[in-house]
Amino acid sequence: MLTMFGLPRPFRGHIGGIQTNAIQSWTLLRPSCEVILFGDEDGTAEMATKFGIQHVPDVERNEYGTPLVNSLFSAAQKLGNHELLCYVNADIILMSDFLPAVQSIAERRCLLVGRRWDLDVNEPINFDNPNWEAALRDSLSKTGRLHRATGLDYFVYPRDLYGDMPPFAIGRTAWDNWIVFRTRSSGLPVIDASKSVTVVHQNHDYSHHPMGEEGVWKGIEAKRNSELLGGIYCSFNLWDATHILTPDGLKPALSIRHLYWRLQRLPETHPHFTPVVIVIRGLRSLVYGTAGLRRKWRLPGRRKKKLP
Questions:
Q1: Which residue ranges form the domains of the chain, and what is each CATH number?
Q2: Entry pTM
Q3: In what order do the strands lie in the sheet with 116-119?
Q4: CA distances from 131 to 95, 150, 291 (A)
Q5: What is the mean pLDDT of each run of 10 residues along the chain (308 residues)?
Q6: CB neighbours of 267 closer than 8 A, spacing ≥ 6?
Q7: Could you tell me which residues are beta bridge partners of residue 273?
Q8: Whose CA is closest to 70, among 217, 3, 169?
Q9: 290 vs 294: CA distance, rounded Å
């Protein structure tokens, strides 16, 4: 039914534990999925052997040694045995609501994505406990936090959809936004499954990068990824979804915010509307700029007094 693939970091310390949690959750999905682990980081081969899944050690990398996303997607397309593929970050736990959502869109040519829930997980999950999922959902209800719409951690898509992907560095910014942009600019639906699928991102530090979190989001590779993306207006996110997958079925994404983003993206999705949107963007900048000047030059006597 589905070929899943990911690229873990070295299986050391806390990150090793949460990746083990994540990958084991993938292997427990039913009906079972084909799972491919890429990369030659410490512990990856052993993890693949432990769970009886495919391991591909050779991955194309940039001059900094960082694996390239297009190489992973291309290899998964060649090796996968299913028409539907799913890239998922190796710190993401999937649960029983994931595959029903995938099955509901299996006949559609589209992209399925969704928000994640951030949660501190510091211990191995006991998957032998039949109530492990209920316990995890209980933890989410108490201390979990729904991530904003810009961070994307899984992508379900037809196998031949992203053959022209630029050489993005994995684990840096922008490449996930490019996938949504590429889908929308191809005229295909983007389905937001956040209301139907709960995926758990296990919080971690950024010690894998020499510059830490600053390097991941603002370093040389992050800046290069942003350039490959093509500009800020190509940074699509879940507000650019065309449909929402709800417990009651698939619905068009017609909220005010969705429609606002759709208008802003017209030059990227429908280039013949570019002149109209340029005018709208200019007026928007003027309004926001004027408001900024008003705040900057407001006289002290016009400020509201604070209540005692």
A1: 2-252 (3.90.550.10)
A2: 0.87
A3: 92-93, 199-202, 116-119, 145-146
A4: 12, 31, 54
A5: 96 96 98 97 97 97 95 96 97 98 96 97 96 98 95 94 94 93 96 98 72 62 92 92 97 95 86 75 66 45 37
A6: 233, 273, 274, 277, 278
A7: none
A8: 169
A9: 6
